[in-house]
Amino acid sequence: MVSGLYDDASEADRRNDSTKADRRDALTSGRLPVAVYGLGKMGLPLAAVFADTGMRVLGVDVDPDVVDCVANGDCHVEEPGLAPLVAELVETGRLDATTDGPAAAAEAAVHVIIVPTLVRDGGEPDLSTVEAVVADISTGLAPGDLVVLESTVPPRTARDVVTPTLEAETGLDRGEFGVAVCPERTASGRALRDIRGSYPKVVGGIDAESTRAALLLYADVTSNRVTPVADATTAEAVKVFEGIYRDVNIALANELATTCDDLGISVREAIETANQLPVCDIHDPGPGVGGHCIPNYPHFLMDRVETETPLTATARAVNERMPIVTVDRLEHELERTGGELRDASVAVLGLTYRAGVPELRNAPALDVIAELDRRGASVVAVDPFVDPESVDIPGLPIDDLPETSLDAVVLTTPHTAFDRIDWETIDPLVLVDARDALSLENTHHRVVTLGVGTPPDESTTAQDRSILGQVDAQ
Ligand SMILES: NC(=O)c1ccc[n+]([C@@H]2O[C@H](COP(=O)([O-])OP(=O)(O)OC[C@H]3O[C@@H](n4cnc5c(N)ncnc54)[C@H](O)[C@@H]3O)[C@@H](O)[C@H]2O)c1
Ligand SMILES: CC(=O)N[C@@H]1[C@@H](OP(=O)(O)OP(=O)(O)OC[C@H]2O[C@@H](n3ccc(=O)[nH]c3=O)[C@H](O)[C@@H]2O)O[C@H](CO)[C@@H](O)[C@@H]1O
The pTM is what? Predict the structure, then answer.
């Protein structure tokens, strides 16, 4: 008889493959219901993939509009392939949604937390949403249940916050229920593909049995391998380290880009050529680091350790300054042409934090616009994915660019829709291509990127370099 995914069975039982198969079968046949707390950009895709393996999934969200939408088989999250999947899963009864967390907790045997973990002004991690879900779960937690943290959390959250709270609130002892950290390794726009197995799934429990139960949970979810790590804290650290790696390396690229002002070289050319070496993986410079992951995760480490973390802190500061660097570049170039930023009319191309996603959290473009505004420029924003007016910024349709009187353009996010702009039909302007995404060398515009301070040496023009490249290739 299978009572839960977490088992206090004897070692002999654990080695028994038929017991393991029974548990897996109980899960994928729907006999062990799964509650997924948080039906947002990552939670809904995760709930759908769980349900698609045969699990019976109850999605929980505090937002009644989200719950109504999902319960009706509709989909409020824009992810490739998600809408038809949600419709089918709701129709066949494998996925449902509720605002009633305690009721879902009472019914479920597996509780998966995928709510946001943010950072307060000042850098302190804000775990209030996770704590609210843990409070719901504790009202229905039963012996044999497994609690899974998919949300990214500061290392030691499972050990020092989640588990002690569950013990205190339920009266159950550690060993009667499981807690495992199984961090989401996905990004907006690729959620279903990533959850189904782009990367190995990391699982780490507060005890060996929790890790074992998490291995069973994900065995049928991912086509990739499931990687057990030593404990829950290691699993938490893996996710936070991934984010810090990215933040620090982007900061390095951004710093190198600013030195190219002095050197008078193209940072992109130097980076691309340096990256010919397999040991070299310099990232792309840009106007800043956005999204709700990478800018937050360094704080999850810095706030939790006594040890000094100067590199992590400096990287954050370098990246946070990039919107200012971008506006400085524009102001400087306008001055070189006799213009002034405080009188300038500027279009910012791309509001979202990266190309191709309708996501504005921590978007560098918003900081660029705030700084332009602070320095007196009048700004319009162009974005094919979000309406600028939704964040109180005057918007401009892409196709209206030629008819609009502009002194400057700043490209902050390289949406593919911008490829269709016919720059020849736009009056000459200063263009800061902060992502180096446009090829406008031969147009009448004054184009600068963040990583070319002065134009390349006249003796080796772009044309010369391409000829030299051909010679080199022969
Ligand atoms: N978005 C990403 O690219 C990404 C990638 C990897 C990991 N993650 C992690 O996934 C987690 C969730 O991110 P997301 O992008 O899905 O967030 P989101 O903001 O899109 O959605 C969160 C959902 O949780 C709901 N919610 C808030 N409090 C709740 C509560 N107490 N009970 C139930 N529901 C509640 C909200 O109403 C919302 O619908 C975060 O911890 C993040 O670190 C996100
Ligand atoms: C590559 C990837 O899968 N990463 C994911 C990441 O996803 P993401 O959606 O946050 O996107 P990123 O690509 O990391 O970009 C963040 C910001 O940095 C800017 N940037 C990026 C690279 C560069 O070389 N130079 C830059 O300037 C970019 O424009 C944007 O503003 O976080 C998720 C949540 O934890 C992780 O699952 C996962 O690691």
Answer: 0.91
